[in-house]
Design goal:
This protein has about 400 residues and is an alpha/beta fold. It has 15 helices and twelve strands. Helix 14 links the parallel strand 11 and strand 12. Bound molecules: iron/sulfur cluster. Iron/sulfur cluster (SF4) binds next to helix 2 and helix 14. The site of iron/sulfur cluster has 11 residues, from helix 2 and helix 14.
Length: about 400
């Protein structure tokens, strides 16, 4: 099919969660999707004052695409939850990008705010589809494919993280290795280029998509299998990496900490393994309500994993992120009061470092701490002495 033109998706912020949906939607409508490349070691990050690194990276990626595309996709994300909001910087993102690219290209910047409209997510894509000249029927078909692609991707996510190099995690044309043999027969080619999906996929409902419920989230009963049993798969150390998705998966921010962790023999677990129910349970008794949806996910996951289940927990934050600074302090205080932390805990704050040596040293030291802890308390039954907590 002849392409209608090019849509650029900056590799930043919520790209690291929703790209299967976004990409499949636009490709299904006949557009070529261009995703910006990693900035890498020699790339120059565009600087503007008082911003966190993820926002600087958004501008850097958007600028790199501006002259090569017909439209840039930078949605105005206000809320992806019926009650709680995203970081306020997200809602200004299209305006910041517009200023930076000096109107070189049109921006698809529909607002998504689930607090005001139940189907805001879907409506935003309907509107964008109309703007791109698609018929209602084409838009509905594209939405269904996007939902199916997103759903499949989420179900395979933890295996993807553990089996693929970080640079390939978001390439939809690369299948998840562990599922290759078992699901090959059940997979039929999708009409959208480069994407395969199961014949019997379980597309999420519009409401589920809209409320960001985690497909593949687990309850207490089926958790053990997914975590790889008490010893982890193949005797690997089970370590939960918690943080905003861009902090976890953008190698320009974290210098590929996940790749390094896998080299050190760690099986990676993330918040995606936990259902909304489990996360809400963990934060239900807090004295203060957390209003940021990503903050709720982070704090709930930290409390959950720090209470056992895993061998270690790493919280990845960005320097200059006010939300993370508050959450970090809050979690530490609650843990101090509860005195029930059983698991080694490492907090890493990233800024524009280029070297990886410091990170390697800290992660190796963390691994030593985990192993020492396992030798001394093999069943994770005793509260952890302070010397096991690395900050
Ligand atoms: S949550 Fe923090 S890191 Fe993310 S955009 Fe907001 S300030 Fe930046």
């Amino acid at each position: 099919m002849e392409k209608k033109g090019r849509i650029g998706i900056p590799r930043a912020l919520m790209f690291y969660r929703y790209v299967p949906f976004w990409r499949t939607f636009f490709e299904s409508l006949g557009w070529e999707v261009m995703v910006s490349r990693d900035v890498g070691k020699r790339g120059k990050i565009i600087y503007f004052e008082d911003s966190c690194l993820p926002m600087k990276l958004l501008v850097t990626h958007a600028t790199s695409l501006a002259s090569e595309t017909d439209h840039l996709f930078v949605p105005r994300l206000v809320s992806l939850h019926p009650k709680y909001i995203l970081c306020p910087k997200f809602r200004g993102a299209p305006d910041i990008v517009r200023l930076a690219i000096e109107k070189k290209v049109s921006i698809l910047d529909e607002t998504i705010d689930l607090r005001t409209r139940k189907h805001s997510y879907r409506r935003a894509f309907l509107k964008m589809g109309e703007k791109l000249g698609a018929s209602p029927r084409e838009i509905q078909a594209a939405l269904s494919r996007a939902e199916a692609s997103f759903s499949t991707f989420q179900k395979e996510w933890i295996e993807r993280i553990n089996q693929l190099p970080t640079r390939d995690l978001f390439k939809l044309d690369i299948p998840t290795p562990a599922l290759k043999s078992s699901s090959q027969e059940a997979v039929s080619p999708c009409h959208c280029e480069g994407v395969e999906r199961p014949k019997q996929s379980h597309p999420v409902s519009n409401e589920e998509i809209a409320t960001l419920s985690r497909q593949g989230g687990i309850t207490r009963n089926d958790k053990q299998g997914l975590l790889g049993g008490s010893e982890g798969k193949g005797g690997l150390l089970r370590v939960a990496f918690i943080g905003h998705p861009y902090n976890l998966f953008d190698t320009d921010i974290n210098k590929d900490i996940l790749g390094l962790a896998k080299q050190l023999g760690m099986r990676i677990l993330t918040s995606d393994l936990l259902s909304e129910e489990v996360i809400e349970h963990e934060i239900s008794n807090l004295s203060k309500e957390i209003y940021w949806s990503s903050g709720r996910e982070i704090v709930g996951s930290l409390f959950h994993f720090l209470s056992g289940e895993v061998d270690g927990v790493v919280f990845i934050t960005s320097f200059k992120c006010g939300i993370d600074a508050l959450l970090q302090e809050f979690v530490k205080r609650v843990l101090r009061i509860r005195k029930t932390s059983f698991v080694p805990f490492l907090v890493l704050s990233f800024d524009e470092h280029t070297g990886r040596e410091g990170l390697t040293t800290r992660l190796e030291a963390f691994k030593d701490v985990i192993e020492e802890r396992k030798r001394q308390a093999p069943n994770n039954k005793h509260p952890i002495p302070n010397k096991f907590q690395i900050k």
